[in-house]
Structures are given as structure tokens and as C-alpha cells.
Amino acid sequence: MDLERVLKGSPWTFNNHVLMLHWPEKKEDPLKVPLIFACFWVQIHEVPPSFYIETLAHQIEGFLGNFLEFDGTNLGKGLCTYLHVREQLDVRRPLKMKNKVMFSVVACSYVSFKYERLTLFCFFYGRLGHSDSFCQAKMALGFDVAEMGWDLSLRAQSRRALALAVYGYEKIGKG
């Protein structure tokens, strides 16, 4: 039970660095396990309300990483402004900001992604593990880069903060 809680509660961090966790299968050599995957809850924003469905989450499968879970608990309650999926991401690859999605045979649009509990992150080339202040690729250029490819819009507000904001809004509305 504790093991499941730890694995489902990821990403875990230490000093703002992601801890890579892997539960080895039988006869799997722990020394040969590549620790390159981390699990994140990802919010999919800018989805038309009639498409808040699990099939849309599966349509994005493979674009972000490996699809693990769909959270539909807030759907239909009027509070949901995004789709909520859990993805296993390869930390060697840049995080995705948006993707073009087909909503019907004739309609397509872009959806944007926000990552919950996003840790140390490089705004220069979009990868986890270091900040742009210590990015070797940026330092190799030898000059200050004015425009970064990524920004803080990738960081999702925590679910607790969102719940408190909704609670505060309801309280003000009733008060």
C-alpha cells in the first residue's frame, strides 16, 4: 500500500530535483534500469467544453509521453477548465507546450499543456534537471540569450491552490 502511494504520488523531489523511481520486475537487473522517466500530472487546457472526454486524452497519447491515467473526477461538476492526465515523461526530451488536436472531422485547434509540480527546469531548451542559469548549451553560445523557448506558463497551479481559489470565490459570492 505504501509502495503504491509513493509511486502514484510522484514526482518526488529532493532539493528541487526530480527523483526517478522504478519498481523492478522479477529478474530485472536494477543496475541496468535506465532512470530516464518521471511521472507527472498534466493539465490539458483550451479544450472545448463538449470534448472533456477520455478519448481526447488518448488522442494526445504518445505526444507527451506514455499515457498512464485519466482523472475525470471533476468532469460534470462545473469546476473543470482542463483535462487531467497522468503521463510518464522521458526527462531527456523537452517538455511540450501545445499540440494541434482534431476535435471533429472538420474542426481542429491547439491545446496547451501545464505540468503539475514542475521542478527545476531549463527555459532555454525545455528540459528538466537544471535551470537556464546553469545550462551548458546556453553557456556554449557565449552570449546572453534574450528570448527563451519556454516560460512559466508550463507550470500548473497546484490543485490545492485551485481548490482554495474556488472556495474563496464561492465564499465571496455568498458573503
TrEMBL record:
This is Zinc knuckle CX2CX4HX4C domain-containing protein. It comes from the Eukaryota. Residues 89-136 form the Zinc knuckle CX2CX4HX4C domain. It holds the Pfam family zf-CCHC_4. It comes from Gossypium arboreum (Tree cotton). InterPro entries: At4g02000-like, Zn_knuckle_CX2CX4HX4C.
